[in-house]
Amino acid sequence: MSASNRIDTRLAALKASSRTALVPFITAGDPGVEATVPVMLALVAAGADIIELGMPFSDPMADGPTIQQSSERALARGVGVAAVLRMVAEFRQTDLETPVVLMGYLNPVEIHGVETFVREAAEAGVDGLLLVDSPPEESEELGALLEANGLHQIQLASPTTSDERLRLLMDSSRGYLYYVSLSGVTGAGTLDHASVKSRMDAIRAIGDLPVAVGFGVKDADSAAAIGAFADGVVIGSALVSVLNDAGADGAVKAARDFLAPIRVALDAG
Q1: Is the peptide bond before 60 cis (omega within 30 degrees of 0)?
Q2: Distance (Å, rounded) from C-alpha 69 to C-alpha 253?
Q3: 231 is an active site residue
Q4: Is 52 a residue of the active site?
Q5: For the chain, how far is it from start to end, CA to CA, in angstroms?
Q6: What is the pTM for the complete model shown?
Q7: How many CA atoms, within 13 angstroms, populate the side-chain half-sphere of residue 116?
Q8: Which helix (H) or strand (E) holds 157?
Q9: I need a surface site. Which of 65, 89, 224, 263 has the fewest CB within 10 A?
């Protein structure tokens, strides 16, 4: 792994060219174990700037039915932490530049062994870690381990996060802050773009860390609307649903066909 984190390198390049980061989320092992790396590569070819790869977990409480079910399917295929790290290492055999962020929950990391996990993640070519249930107050040790191994810990903020807490999240987050644009679970509700923009302005007044917006971004139109004022747009549930419908055999084409118009819309904005 290079001395500078791929996330920082990529976001700096995008900022220099006034482009918005496109950050697709997929669950490792869904819609098939062998399909995951080809899908990741197809997403990059279609314009992804950062890949968020979900680590399957049996109780993903922040996720809606679409991602919960993808996690269940992946677990049924035997996809655990070791398999996810193997997928990243395989991806790195072809792609040395696109940042990969692992997204999930603390329990599987602790079961694997935190120090072992961080070391193996760095060796596999992971760039960042976003754990839904590992707030700054409880992740000092993890954060120090990640930093020592060149990985970024990415924190989550929501519409109900206080300004005081936002400062804490901005101080402890590296790479970017993930702003959950809706209160609730992934895949739920409809975005009020004006309220998201207002919140983004408030976040930017607190710190200059790049902000990626997720939850509620479903298609090219919603991505372009959010991309007009966000540093990055995360799209998960809609993509996971499309991949499930396509099945393992059709997943690569489905990934490319889904993401390419969103890239076009973001760049046009």
Answers
A1: no
A2: 22
A3: no
A4: yes
A5: 33
A6: 0.95
A7: 8
A8: strand 156-157
A9: 65
